[in-house]
Amino acid sequence: MRYKITIEYNGSKFLGWQKQKYSIYSIQETIENAVFNFTGEKIVLYCGGRTDAGVHALGQVAHFDIQQAVEPYRIRNATNYHLKSTDIAIINAEIVNETFHARFSAKKRHYEYRIINRYAPVVLEAGYVWQIFKPLNVEIMCEAAKYLLGKHNFSSFRSKYCQSKNPVKTIDNIEIIQNKDHLYIRISALSFLHNQVRIIIGTLVEFGRNSIDPNQMLKILTHCERNYAGITAPAHGLYLVGIDY
Amino acid sequence: MRYKITIEYNGSKFLGWQKQKYSIYSIQETIENAVFNFTGEKIVLYCGGRTDAGVHALGQVAHFDIQQAVEPYRIRNATNYHLKSTDIAIINAEIVNETFHARFSAKKRHYEYRIINRYAPVVLEAGYVWQIFKPLNVEIMCEAAKYLLGKHNFSSFRSKYCQSKNPVKTIDNIEIIQNKDHLYIRISALSFLHNQVRIIIGTLVEFGRNSIDPNQMLKILTHCERNYAGITAPAHGLYLVGIDY
Predict the structure, then answer these.
(1) Which positions does UniProt annotate for substrate binding (chains A, B) (predicted)?
(2) Do B118 and A91 touch (CB under 8 A)?
């Protein structure tokens, strides 16, 4: 039986999604162990979007196979029981057929990046947003973001450790929502390069901080070199919101 | 000089706004001490909405007087410095004239109550929302809420310890915003009875949980007795959003 699960997690205390050789603090291994604890079966969990250390998820999706047939609500509840106090929760579980693959069947990944733009310290959302002290020019950020829409070579926006063979990606949507001192930047694409979202955010913040002419974004794109783009925004402001299949 | 300050706090670890005889864990005393630490003046802080233990604030307002004249941005920064690691932050400080009183000049108080309605455990917002496991009938809650709008005797919706002489209050606005499994209930009025917002929320949740006929709300109002209304919703879902002057 193949199960698709939807997962929420607070990434703060984890080294990221992926199982590590020398650490047990991966989200993948924590859930694999929880499922083993009530099924007695060793599973391998495949996810739709491998998140880095510190990145949160509202709607990560993964799948796994087990021999026995268990009601989906029992998969959810029993896994949650064994995940108690781990900062991970299974929001939903369902049976899918064997052609479904959390990674390869995904049609679109949705990320959100949360910024708080003020000088006063952050209390209620500490650890869940990136605080920018200097006032941001949001209009310029919106203009600059438009250059990233569509199909481009995103070499300037990928980590030096990115293993992807093809740096060409298509961004379907990028929007900036402002609510008082909060900015929510939403980005959707079929897939992303390593750190692509966080480098895009770091670059947009640089435009907003220093009121850089938005059309400079075109130059950054065409240079195809990592050091032309801005910093990699911190992980704790990033949320994997959901994945479409 | 009179200063008006706007304050954000995480109420979880405090016994509430008001200074206590046998405890130092009040928000009022914590801020009074912070101001004393850099001005050397003992102040008395008056707030616009005394919040109970565990209640959070996004925009509490308070005022205090000191002899010396300090630039407002210094009031904000120096107080924040001395509030470090207390879960309280001064968002804004400004000079006001002596006719301004945080409590008596207030024209409207805005509260928001946050509910998450799902069976799966809450991870990212644990401690910041009230989790209701059973699906809520939100339509019924919206209908029932309408009966509370306007001027009523709210005796059914006040704590047995409420010291207000007059139980008649006017609710100017009450709206329920649904976003997936989240409910945000916003309530505004010139002033509230003790626990009024939390009892209103507890009662609305009872309507939504058990699909009670919305017009039963009228009966609860007219009975004017606390035990006709629902439970007092937990403090940790409640936010003092702001105060109009």
Answers:
(1) 111
(2) yes
